[in-house]
Write a structure and sequence with these properties.
This protein is α/β, with parallel strands linked by helices. 25% of the residues lie in helices and 32% in strands. The protein contains 16 helices and 38 strands. The chain has a nine-stranded mixed sheet.
Amino acid sequence: MPFETPEWFFLLGVFLFAGWFWPHLQLWRPLRVISLLTLVLLLADPRLEKAEDSLDLWVLLDRSESTEDLIDTGLPEWHELLLQSKPTRKDQLLFVDYAAEVLEQGRGDSAVFTGNRKLTRTNLAIQNVLALANAERPTRVLAFTDGYATEPLVEAAAKLKARGIPLDFRLVREETTNDFSIAQIHTPVRAQLNEPFVLGITVRGFEDVDVPLHILRDGHPIAENVKVSLKNGTGKVEFTDRIPAVGSYKYSARITPPDDAHPGNNTAERWIEVTGGPRILLVTKYTDDPVAQILRQQGFTVEVVTNSLGLQVGQLSGTRAVIINNVPAFEMPGDFLAALNFFVHEQGGGFLMAGGKQSFGSGGYFESAVDPLLPVSMELKTEHRKLAVAMAIVMDRSGSMGMAVAQGGKQVTKMQLANTGAAKAIELLGAQDKIAIYAVDSEPHTVIRLSDVGNKKKQWMIAARKIRSQGGGIFVYRGLKAAWDDLRQTDLGTRHIILFSDAADSEQPGNYKQLLNEITNNSGTVSVIGLGTRSDPDAALLEDIAKLGNGRIFFTNRPLEIPKLFAQETVTVARSAFIKDPVTTRSTGHWSEISPKPFEFLSEVDGYNLSYPKEFAATSLVAQDDYLGPLVTHWRRGIGRCMAVSFPLGGEYSEKARSWESYGDFIQTITRWLMGFEMPPGLGLRHRLEGTRLTIDLFYETDEWARRFAQTP
């Protein structure tokens, strides 16, 4: 029998001593002994554990890419065996699917796991089970997995032990005798400019043969058909390489054995950072960006990227600041923009967006991943809007839109997320605008015929949320034609179509080129939101529609991002403005927060992106017009720094800025401010990534910094 507070048993020794020292108390009498023992037992708070005659068995099913087919093959048999072995009706059998996300079977509209399969988050799955398990009932966990997790299991193991819940597992692996794989690529994490380093590759296989090996650096071959000789199932090769330019580089290795059961493990990748001083990553639309020229003249190491779609998150390694110079959001990889948040907040990086006709709200950055980093609000105020917009939304309601995804612990369909996006677009329109919505499968179905938004905004939003997936595919041409037939009747100057479609199921394009030619000749535009990736079967069609329609193209394979993309596109069309007229400027005095040196700003700019400073942001320069728009605004995010320069620094509308006497001084000063300060002497940071968990260690010299930390913890 366990006791909650067993320390009370020490009272027995006190009572024995009292009975010996004060005999007249007569504590040895039976009634008094029984009373004292009862008192001590009650104070110790005994707990009676009642054995349950039932069990909750939670079955975890690893649905990651490496085990998906094996789980599907064995699940019917395992399910039947577990059901047959249930001792009583009181026992419960609960199945949970997991990969990058966790989903309990039997919850939601779909029994099919629709989450991301790229990760194996066993720790997250176990902790979900612990949260859902009934503490009043005996519980046991059974995991079907290949044994490979992409995150540490220490935390889950500790919680299982604390709850007294046992974990059983069955390894699900396909037994093969003809498999070759790349076991490891070994390179240093970091190397100096032109420093030679060793690249080592380990190959494993089921027999001792020569295996062809190909090595690439950033997609370019540096060694082909190298023979790796396997002995006792293992072969190793080493190469020496050196890189003459600063940056982050990706090494890829691929083997091509003639007979291999699992070609999916024949490739491996690894990044290396080449350092040579502080590095700036400049993403620009300009071939000869004057910002790059100025920074290089000042001694900065600048990596210029003009092919923005080729950006990779690994390029942030070793970078001190990122500058986006007039590059639209739809030409930036979503994972790169999302990584900037961690880069700034946790790694102390700097982020600057410069103005231009394809920047800020005009470039589609409203509600993008970098919107929270920017110190300015990009949504044009209603009172500042001068032009009305007629917008038609063509919605894919084909069968694929009925698939469910997890959102906040609930299951929602892709159609519901698209409906939310359409409603968000209507919410961002003004009373003077017009809206039309068509739901399309094999035919266009009118949801809202072209109407004034007026005071019916809520009514139109409710209508947009009622669209349901009906099966079949989407006939793109018919949807676009129905929308244009509606828009052509209005005399509003801006007529825009948003096409939302599945990049893997967009059918019957018809004579779309002729239709788009008619639309653009009559001042209409077409943008596309494609659910999927640029490599999907119908992605090229959707890209061509956006290109010929003089619009933008967005791709996402994360359905939860759909509402944000609708908002980004609507703000770009209806609630953003690039002021094309010259405007005088006025300094506010906040420049002293960036540099103590007095600064003479340019007196006039050729144009700027109209925006509004966010709360807690500091504006150093404002436009002297009716809007008083911010021209130079900054703030701190986490341990990093962010800035918005709303006037162009290159290209069109930048003549006055580039001819400004202090142009170079301005560029180098704001860049140094973005980069922050070097780590103080005696301090160091080291980080390590275990699956999806990042651990950061702070190292310091014992004597000096121990004293400082003692004074100011």
